[in-house]
Specification:
By secondary structure, the chain is α+β, with helices and mostly antiparallel strands. About 45% of the residues lie in helices and about 20% in strands. It contains 23 helices and 25 strands. Strands 4, 5, 6, 7, 8, 9 and 10 form a seven-stranded mixed β-sheet that branches. It has a six-stranded mixed beta barrel with strand order 17-18-23-20-22-21. Strands 1, 2, 3, 11 and 12 form a five-stranded antiparallel β-sheet that branches. Strand 4 and strand 5 form a beta hairpin.
Length: about 800
């Protein structure tokens, strides 16, 4: 212990003796460790931290499948199918399901309306998750029946915000969607639930509609289950598959596909595959940046070690063993790594403040968990500490081993100069530089690919005009939820009357599923005049409802026919507007306009196609247009709608007038999620913008560190070869010869690093495949341009030390030690 204390004290003295060297080394390490710590904080919060439910390994989703059990074939479920699955399975301890789309509920407290995100759930929902309420109780089985479902469970934030945390709230009546609901429970602060959206703030009983209990093809729920103890995932899949095939045979006319089955998936794994690939790719990139930082510090230590040879030789002559000297050098590097780690945590804290606004929605709101504020907790702190120790060993190992190999006593011999350094040491330094060039090229190639991909995405025509469009989400209190006529038949007309009267508003519309949101509902249909293939092989497309003027407001071109009008009422003929992709798919030879279609299993009459609109990107700018058709809201209601307003000036300034106008409508509609359409277009790129920006930052840091490292090694090499250069100049060497000598050797190592880097980039950039659009991971143009950029930076880094070598005075150089 005494020797360790002595080593630490001596290491501190040596660092204080060279504050410039220590400052540069610690700052370099801080940047690398800080960047790694920040990314690990994100990984910890999203991938490593377990879901906050007991025995999470037994929690699974139950999905309906069509043609396989892969992630692309899963589908939401119908209540009837899940009721049968619950009765027939032998592997599930408890099971529940909830409305997949959720719903916005109009909550009015003290005459202050608010739209609150909520969800319909079956009675066992909280029990399956293993969560108990903070106050009161959850739902009872008898409360699942429509008409007896006027109970509500509040989230902790909603209870605090709107009811001031009143513990006497249990049993009180509160107005929800204009109806009186009894508060039966309040969930604990730690319970945060979301699925495909922001966290839910209230829960109501499922209140089965007639469609839920009569239409086996009405898939509108997500099912979760807790497996029995000892049941493996493979056993559960086999049991569910058997039940699924049994249901397909028992109800052949009601299922959408002959290949219908049922499967399970671990709750913790859903939606994580793409996220894992993105975050681990970023972690690899930032790891390369840290290695580059370690190489730079190692080269600094090698250069400093050459200057300390006389000191080490004296210590050796006084009896110090080589093992003792190596331990001292490792202690110094570990101390430097520790100090770099402390500074790195500060850098990470600052970096997280910059990263937080960039987090895409799919990362902030993961299924069944709300990431919230990403912070440096105990696990992240331990990671930073271990990383500091590891980097200390990494960059300290080369100088320590170099010292062990050298003949330490040589510097004591007469005439030994301070310029003494071995050719092996020079080769080691240049080899380390070649390594950091290779690592930098890999990171640069990844960033270049992401930047090129983003530029291509930004050039994609969304099929609409997002400029000067404001969007507001409202709940329509639809009684029959996703089927049947609208409860509020005047909703669209009142929108035009109240919001359209706001000065500066050009037009107003509304839609159930906003473009670029990715949300939709699928519907199958029959085409008049063609043989009815049945639900198994019938036509289908993405389905939504819209108010008149929606397409004009969004800037979606009308190609043929007309939009919806106020004349399209419940008591008038049914009408449909579809996009061009749907028209070409089911009417490839034309004739879609005026055709008649009828929805499956809805009892609806034939509907006439009255309009065809241009294709637009519904799922995102990187998605291909798919068949999409609309019915007018005045004929087919929907529980939640997004109001869209086109304005003459900046749309954000119209938020408060729009809120007031909605409150003046007969439904007194509170609005939420108020965004401009340009924000929505930007947010749709979030899952790609996030890694692009971080990779670009890492690439810039890698480029700077590499340039500094190359310049440092070349500069040190010039100092070490000053005597040699002086002799060459004295013998007649021209400045260009000296320039060629210095640049030639250094650039040769750089080119070797570029070759290795290209090979590494070809292999590792494949990790970015799912994040790229319109560009291949091995794009030769991008790889070539990246290599040229790095070579140019390396040349510039070598050139300035080489110019100093050209100006060497031979008389001064010959006397140089």
């Amino acid at each position: 212990m005494n020797r360790l204390t002595q080593d630490i004290r001596y290491a501190l003295r040596m660092l204080l003796k060279s504050p410039g060297f220590a400052g540069v080394a610690i700052l370099t390490l801080a940047l690398g460790i800080g960047a790694n710590t920040a990314i690990f904080s994100v990984i910890n919060a999203t991938l490593l931290k377990p879901l906050p439910y007991p025995d999470i390994a037994r929690l699974v989703f139950v999905w309906q499948t069509y043609g396989g059990n892969g992630p692309d074939n899963i589908n939401i479920v119908s209540a009837l199918n899940m009721i049968d699955v619950q009765k027939q399975n032998s592997v599930v301890e408890s099971m529940a399901w909830f409305d997949s789309a959720g719903k916005g509920y109009n909550l009015s407290v003290d005459d202050v309306p608010e739209r609150v995100s909520g969800v319909r759930v079956t009675a066992p929902f909280f029990h399956v998750l293993g969560v108990k309420p903070l106050l009161g109780r959850t739902f009872l089985p008898e409360e699942e029946t429509a008409g007896r479902d006027r109970e509500v469970v509040l989230s902790y934030p909603l209870w605090q915000r709107r009811f001031s945390g009143d513990p006497a709230i249990i049993g009180k009546q509160i107005p929800v969607d204009g109806e009186s609901y009894t508060v039966v429970g309040v969930m604990p602060k730690t319970f945060e639930f979301q699925f495909w959206s922001r966290p839910r703030e209230l829960w109501v009983p499922v209140g089965y509609t007639n469609n839920d209990l009569t239409d086996r093809g009405s898939n509108s729920f997500v099912a979760i289950a807790r497996l029995k103890p000892g049941v493996s995932l493979e056993q559960a899949k086999a049991d569910m598959d058997t039940i699924g095939h049994r249901l397909a045979k028992e109800y052949p006319k009601d299922d959408d596909d002959k290949r219908f089955s049922v499967t399970v998936m671990p709750l913790a794994e859903y939606g994580m595959n793409d996220l894992k690939a993105t975050l681990w790719a970023l972690f690899a990139a930032v790891g390369f940046v840290l290695l580059i930082a370690c190489v730079n510090v190692a080269n600094l230590l090698l250069a400093r070690g050459a200057g300390r040879q006389r000191e080490l030789a004296i210590r050796c002559a006084l009896g110090a063993t080589r093992r003792r000297l190596v331990r001292q050098l490792i202690t110094e590097s570990l101390l430097m790594g520790f100090l770099g780690g402390v500074a790195g945590i500060i850098v990470a804290l600052f970096g997280l403040n910059l990263v937080a606004p960039l987090l895409p929605a799919n990362l902030q709101y993961l299924p069944f968990r709300h990431v919230g504020g990403i912070a440096i907790d105990g696990r992240v702190f331990i990671f930073a500490l271990l990383l500091s120790c590891l980097t200390g060993v990494l960059f300290g190992l080369a100088p320590a081993l170099s010292t062990q190999r050298n003949q330490i006593i040589d510097p004591l011999k007469e005439g030994a100069g301070r310029g003494l350094t071995s050719s092996g040491g020079n080769r080691l330094r240049h080899a380390l530089v070649a390594g950091e060039v290779a690592l930098a090229l890999i990171v640069l190639a990844g960033a270049a690919l992401m930047i090129d991909s983003m530029s291509r995405l930004l050039g994609v025509d969304p099929g609409l005009n997002p400029k000067n469009v404001l969007t507001l989400d409202v709940s329509t209190a639809q009684e029959n939820l996703y089927v049947g006529p609208p409860t509020d038949e005047q909703f669209c007309r009142e929108l035009t009357q109240h919001l359209g009267a706001i000065p500066g508003v050009v037009s107003v519309g509304a839609v159930a599923h906003l473009p670029l949101s990715g949300a939709d509902a699928g519907r199958g249909f029959t085409i008049e005049g063609r043989p009815d293939p049945g639900p198994e092989d019938g036509a289908g497309g993405s389905y939504s409802v819209a108010c008149p003027n929606f397409f004009r407001t969004m800037g979606i071109p009308l190609l043929k026919g007309r939009e919806f009008t106020d004349a399209d009422r419940v008591d008038s003929a049914g009408v449909v507007v579809m996009n061009e992709a749907m028209a070409k798919r089911f009417w490839p030879k034309g004739g879609a306009l005026g055709a008649h279609i009828k929805l499956f299993d809805s009892g609806a009459p034939w509907m006439t196609v009255v309009g065809i609109v241009a294709n637009f990107r519904h799922d995102g700018l990187d998605s291909k247009p798919r068949p999409h058709f609309y019915r007018p809201f005045t004929q087919a209601g929907w529980p939640f709608m997004t109001v869209v307003m086109r304005t003459t000036t900046a749309p954000a300034s119209f938020e408060q007038p729009a809120r007031r106008a909605l409150a003046q409508m007969s439904g007194n509609y509170p609005a939420s999620s108020v965004l401009t359409m340009e924000q929505i277009v930007s947010d749709s790129l979030g899952s790609r913008r996030f890694p692009m920006l971080l990779l670009s930052a890492f690439a810039s840091l890698a480029l700077v560190l590499s340039a500094v490292g190359i310049a440092g090694v070349v500069g040190y090499s010039v100092i070490q070869r000053t005597h040699e250069i002086g002799i060459r100049v004295a013998l007649g060497a021209q400045p260009r010869d000296v320039l060629k000598l210095v640049l030639g050797g250094s650039m040769l190592w750089t080119l070797g690093g570029v070759v290795v880097g290209i090979a590494g980039a070809i292999g590792l950039t494949r990790l970015l495949g799912n994040l790229l659009y319109g560009v291949q991971p091995t794009d030769p143009v991008i790889l070539g341009a990246t290599a040229v950029l790095l070579i140019a930076v390396a040349f510039a880094a070598c050139y300035f030390p080489a110019r100093r070598a050209m100006r060497v005075d031979p008389m001064v150089a010959l006397r140089y030690e």
